[in-house]
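W.,

You were right to be curious about this one. When I first looked at the sequence I had no strong expectations either way, so I just let the prediction run and decided to look at it fresh. Below is the sequence, 314 residues in total, followed by the output.
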Amino acid sequence: MLKLLTVEDESLQAWQEYVHNKPDAHFYHDYRWKTVLGGSFGHKPFYLLAQDGSRISGAFPLIFMKSKIMRPCLISLPFLNYGGMLADNKEAEAFLLNSAINIANSIKAVYIESRDLNSSSIYTATREHKVTMLLYLNNDIEAAWSGLDHKVRNEIRKAQKSGIEIKAGKAEMLSCFYEVFCRNMRDLGTPVLGRRFFESIIKEFPEEANIFVAELNGRAIASAFTLCHGDTMEVPWASSIRDFNKLCPNEFLYWEMIKYATLQKLKIFDFGRCTKDSGTYKFKKQWNAEAKQLYWHYWAYSGKELPADNPKKS
């Protein structure tokens, strides 16, 4: 018979051991993201484990979201590209979803959203509007350059000739990154993630987190916050100041990050999620990145509408 564990300090080791040994687990299943998401925004986390005797058979990280601009809900995981439930079998999968529904009922959350890399049939609805864009690396920078469309190569050369420089670092580069990030979010009319969120990521993941900045005459005009995990380099957050777009800083920035990942002998450059056929999708596609389908699963109260596909949403 399955037993539910809500993860606290005494069951932390069990969580970490399970997700680190689970082949389909993602970097975002690491328990340290509970500290980042809970501590940065004050949202209540619910990290659920299914225990079968002495063995863990499933894990479901959830964050309770409630604000003036969105209905109360449980998301796995907000502000991040991936998340979702991990389960060894259908029994554990159903057990964890039912446990999450019981929590949703108790806290009056109107829906559950699980952002998964794999499809599942146990939810009431699934959306396939999001993809992630993956570039597979072969440890050959010259081959990667030759494989680019001539338009992209010309844009990179244009940025280089304009005097743009790319710099990389960690916490010392955060102010430069965040200045560009805030300006870009303001221009898009999108709520800005607090600086504390990025500070917390750097604190919890000092080895994995890196920042890249494109500078022109000492001013940051484009930037990216990256995470290296396993054989992958991921770009969850990237921004630029649109006034300088004609100089192509984004193209130069991404090329330097791809070079960095190649020199680190990583196998995958993950451009991050986007909506199919959007402008962001087309930008990522031009690098020969391949689209990988994402599955956003939902459970909702009968008669309750699912959230709209809003690019400004977490």
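Here's what jumped out at me. The chain is about 35% helix and 35% strand. And, maybe more interesting for your project: The chain has a mean pLDDT of 92.

Coffee later to discuss?

I.
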